[in-house]
Amino acid sequence: MTELNAIVESARAAFSLAVTPADLENAKAQFLGKTGRMTELMKGLGALSVDEKKSRGAAINLSKQAIEAALTERRAALALAELEVQLKAEALDVTLAGRKRGMGSLHPVSLSMERIEQIFGSMGFDVADGPEIENDWYNFGALNFPEDHPARAMHDTFYVEGGKLLRTHTSPMQNRYAVQHVKKHKAAMSAGAVMPEIRVIAPGRTYRVDSDATHSPMFHQVEGLWIGQNVSFKDLKVVFTDFCHTFFETKDLELRFRPSYFPFTEPSAEIDIQFQSGPLAGRWLEVAGSGQVHPRVVENFGLDPEQYIGFAFGMGADRLTMLRYGVNDLRLFFDGDIRFLSQFQ
Ligand code: DAH
Fold this sequence. Notes:
This protein is an alpha+beta fold. The chain is 44% helix and 19% strand. The protein contains 12 helices and 9 strands. Strands 1-4-5-9-8-7-6 form a 7-stranded mixed β-sheet, with helices on both faces. Strands 2-3 form a two-stranded antiparallel sheet. It is rod-shaped and about 140 Å long. 3,4-dihydroxyphenylalanine (DAH) is lined by residues 169, 171, 223, 262, 265, 289-291, 312-314. 3,4-dihydroxyphenylalanine (DAH) binds at residues 169, 171, 223, 262, 265, 289-291, 312-314.
């Protein structure tokens, strides 16, 4: 019987070496298959006497059962192992931190634009939008620029195909808006009515051939225009002072109107501001150009300059944003660096 025991033991050993179901089926064939060792032993029974057959047959059967039991046990173990591998592979680790999708936010200059629109909106100003590709008339002609004005030179202005140009300021919106306004009220005006005042701001992108720490070829301006029968420099001063107080959230701030020159205003002034406290205190900072709208510009609106008068201003929106947030290099606004931009969330 030790021979049978040895076969059972070697079957157990072979089964436990099998790591896949296919290995196990091969191992099974070696013992229980058609030419397997147990099958061969059974075949040998034929040559024995009846008594010997009985006892030998019973012993072989017991061994065969032992081998089958070992096989069943190993099958179950392999199936379980396979299930475990599968479960592990498909495991959902619910403790893994989620992947955050970064929240986008408005660009600091957009934040300023929104703020400017809101402040002027509360003072009764409409907000107008216009083309960045302009023609010479709106950008220069309607604004009383002489033919030979240096701003019209190629080294200051980007010209594009068809004699058009990238607007060098938001001032072309003065004529675009005013002409529409006049058209809208023309009938009533010819029947003797007074034109409702023009009160508008026009924020947007502007372009010049210029690039350094404080100049970018693309920058932002906000134009303002207020035309009526009795609008004066005093009104400009009040409106702009109010605007600065609200925009910078402080009344601790002085304004200075410094005489200047623009072809489209007469008289003209640069508007400087000075904070009385804080890190920028004591320095005059230029924030806008302004003036009383030139009679020829008013005429180009389709209005009689003897009857209608007003003022205009153009402010640097990037400059205002730098002052508001304490940013010292204009180029940071246009680099698109998330580390900078996310600070304005
Ligand atoms: N357009 C001028 C510039 O870009 C700024 C300006 C000055 C606008 C005076 C105005 C104004 O409306 O009245 O330099």
